[in-house]
Amino acid sequence: MEGPAEIVMPDGSVILCERPVMALCTCRRTLRAPFCDTSHRRRLRGGDKQAKTASRGASRVPRGPAEEAETS
Amino acid sequence: MTLLSPAVDARPEAPEARGEVSRKVLNRLRGGGSGRLPLAADIARCAPYGEDLQLALHLCYELHHRGFAGVPDNLEWDPGLLGVRALMEHRFESALRHDCRHCPEVEEALAALLVEPVDGTGVSRFLMSSGELWHLREYVALRSVHQLREADPQLWVIPRLRGRAKAAMVAVEYDEYGSGRAERMHSRLYAELMADLGLDPSYGRHVDMAGAEVLAASNVMSLFGMHRRLRGALVGHFAVLETTSPPAASRIATAMRRAGAGPAAQRYFEEHVEADAVHEQLVRREVVGGLLEDEPDLAPDVAFGIAAACFLEDRIGGRVLDAWSRGESALRSPLPPPSGNEP
Per its UniProt record, what Pfam families does this chain match (chain B) (predicted)? Predict the structure, then answer.
């Protein structure tokens, strides 16, 4: 949603977010409430992922990087 | 607010040569435009991801960013250097296209980035589980090659986009640049994080310590950013940065807390968990989605950019973890001891 906005928390406290666009957590799994921290992402065991990747044939490029890129 | 010394914004010293090609490029820079350029045959002999070619490319690209101390600004458009850069770019891009030739399509590739492997291995996982302060300092020093100019190479793509893609790209970049506040610029937060870890936050200070893998990951952003024909690749590459950043930043924030790093170090990575969770949504839906709606023919280039980012990041992780697993430094030369909290 678009910011900046003041977000009223369940305990009545107010959090000011000055970002022009913000992502609020709706799955309640975030550790940074009320904001999204991507904890909603599906978690997969590596074996499953490799099995899926292998089905596509020999590729030196991973589906998702084993390494995460720089922050940006 | 930490006050950074003026040296932080000064033009960097040129790094040391790593072979014949980078030596000739350096001589050209130091000679103010005189000096023999590397020949096509010299460049053809270079390994495309090797130290010599990647440093020479870095030298050429840096002329378009900050330049170097003692090097005239007009060398940015020196036809001889531009010709050499084109030969090196051709070698680099050809190797990347070959290594990424089996890349999945855009939707599939982006979906894969949104899955968190439970038992994944990577630098941020290593740092979270067993990173000591010296690992964190090395990691931050290596990443400083790009992070001290964070978002700059991506800015070049904006005039080449239209509509939704352009508007969303500007929104993300505005956030990267602190939403109008210099003290919130991500590159500034990074400099403060470095100072917190007792590292010199001067731009370009750690280039000599960074191996070819780090230079390649940084050079590819300039390659994609400076060529309009590669705008699709830039957008794909950027989507990888923004998508994989939040979980990794969260792990590194944990590592920073555990290692007793200062508040700026934690703040930087915590900011990126929250900021990049937003950016991921904008980049995936609006920038990638908007670009492909506008120019569907660019889909293979977007997929190439995604694959190239993953490929080059994996090479960094490979070199860093290989060194650390042997208890050795991942840098080409040792870091000076921590300098205290003041730069």
Answer: Haem_oxygenas_2
